[in-house]
Amino acid sequence: MPGVVFFAFFAVAPMVLAVYLSFTTWNGLGDPKPVGLANWQKLLHDDRLTQSLTVTVLLTVTSWAFQTVVSLLLGVWAAGRQRNRAILSAIFFVPFLLSSTAIALLFYALLDPNFGVIHQDTLGSTSGAFLAIVFVGGWQFIPFHTLIYQGGARQIPEVLYQAAAIDGAGRYRQFFSITLPQLRNTATTSSVLMIVGSLTYFETVLILTQGGPGTDTAILPYLMYEAGFKSYDFGYASAIATFLVVAATALSLVLVRLTGFGAMRSTREGM
Amino acid sequence: MESYSRRWVLGAGATTLLTAGLTACGSSDSTGSSSTVTAFVYGDDATKVQVKAATRFNASAAAKKAKGKIKLEKVPGTDYPAKLRTAMGSPNAPDVFFNWGGGSIKAYQEADQLVDLTDTIKSDPVLSSGFLPSVLAAGALKGKNYGIPMRGMQPVILFYNKSVFAAQKLQPPTTWAELLDINKKLKAANITPFALGGADIWPELMWLEYLVDRIGGPEVFDRIKNGDASGWGDPAVLKAAETVKQLIDDGAFGKGFSSVSYVNGGAPAVFAKGKAAMHLMGSWEYSTQLGKFPDFAKTNLGWSAFPKYEGGAGDIRNVVGNPTNYWSVNTRTGNKDAAIAFLRDCASEAYAKDLVANGDIPTTSNAEKLLDSSPNPEFAKFQYQLVQQAPAFTLSWDQAVDPDVSTPMLTEINKLFVGKSSPAEFVSALKGLK
Q1: Do B85 and B192 fall within a single domain?
Q2: Does any CB of chain A come closer than 8 Å to the CB of residue B4?
Q3: Residues 6+ apart with CB under 8 A from A200
Q4: Does A54 contact B at CB distance below 8 Å?
Q5: Which structural domains are found in chain A, ordered by start?
Q6: Taking residues A140-161, what's their average pLDDT?
Q7: Judgement on whether residues B425 and B401 belong to the same structural domain of the protein
Q8: What is this model's ipTM?
Q9: Size of interface A-B (CB pairs under 8 A)
Q10: What's the whole-model pTM score?
Q11: Distance between CA B314 and CA B172 in Å, rounded?
């Protein structure tokens, strides 16, 4: 019950108000004035929204690919029982414990072209800025997904590997024929978390690139922030926010449906 | 999914929670008890001057007469404008607040939240003759005063590294041709001519502000500031953008400038260490360097006015930047007399002395004689005379126009500097800003 009240007050109520605000114009002073569909029409014809959507999708897909591959390999590696792996896994987990803001500030300093580690105009080029965001996001969240994969890999029954070894399967064959198929449900869970998470990426972009160079990394949440807290156009910002909520909800529903997340079949059927 | 809903609250919900507060309590007009006057101030190092002023005022006869005491609230962080906007829309609005004049207070004026100080200033000799007229005027909106100057002046100055200039046998440029010539010599010696914190964007803006002034005169931006977006079509804007493009293509800012930040200390360090020879920056560069590279600030930091542009309409004495910061009074204050009495203290000699001791240059008419006690009298007098003799002091563009214009304007400037748009595209994008 307290959970419901909390959710209603801090999630549902603001959501309803954001929908209301999206039909008004409000600069933060006085009362919001109703403007009908003006903000929504503006949203439909805003070139920056199209660009922003493209960047958001690209970022989501790239982050997902990068994080999945690395966390899968690290997770399977960390699932081993050797002591050095336990110690290293603990160290690998540290980035996830740091705040996103601190991480972004740290990398911002490291990317300084004069005093950082890479003497390049990284954040000044479109691809550089984009890859920096993907990398920094990965650096932060890979430890968490590694943990998921580690747990998943440890659940795989040892007998499967023993049987495969008897049949003469090598390490690679074992990985592709046993580990990967057995991790199917783990991968689904991790991917859904990654994809929905990257839709609400914000601090990293705000601190590293401020949507730049130009507007090339201005993802949806950043566009919303800019409209609201830089231009004080809270009506338009709320329209973007509502759009984001609808898009993210739709996407996660589709993901759940497509991946069978709701009705996961056991990977051990027939064993 | 849990992290999803939490972030959603942070992102989308923050704005709307404010609405809830506003609609619930928006009808109440009181701003605390009438005897306490709350003042919001930008919470940086310079706040100690305002802290002293509040203490002095609270013990004064003027405070007793007005039956009010000042309570300073130091609002930390770079997001002061957003925090102020939030507070001003809520029942906990301050009575008196720090601002940049011009566009930064326009929305408050339109919402009837600013006390018109024009007559107060006119009828009070302490205020009317207390400040430099150009500074008082720069904070006004359509000829009406809403602010009292309360901090030091912050003109944008061309700083140069004296040891680099001496080693290359150079003099600070007074004309554009000289500047280009200096650039050539510096590049031959493998030194970047100018440090530029492009990641922050506003340091890029300074170049356009000065170039448009020198090429077309202060009238060009004046027209834009007053709401005529077609003013961006003035040939001076295109010429300035082309000049910027030439500088960039020529390597005047080095290669990685768009990843360099002023705020995190990157650009000041490039300049202090002699990797770059010059730095176009607000006068606060001096105190920044004093904090980070004290030896450089004391012995090797040189300064000069922005050069003249051959054939341009602008006077070399014109200045751009932030004339100063201002106190404005909220119409909903419970004790207007106390608020205005506190504002009068800014014209006092004691206040000016505190500013000078802090390394600031007061914008009061009595300031010049106090400057000898400044930590750096030479720099102080240079600044004071620069501003005092300026035929025009153009307020920083991002402060002069509305936030909903300045945000896309800064984005367009960034696109010009990173090469995402050509000077012609830059001009046509700006003309589209209403």
Answers
A1: no
A2: yes
A3: A221, A244, A248, B4, B7, B8, B11
A4: no
A5: 2-259 (1.10.3720.10)
A6: 94
A7: yes
A8: 0.82
A9: 168
A10: 0.84
A11: 19
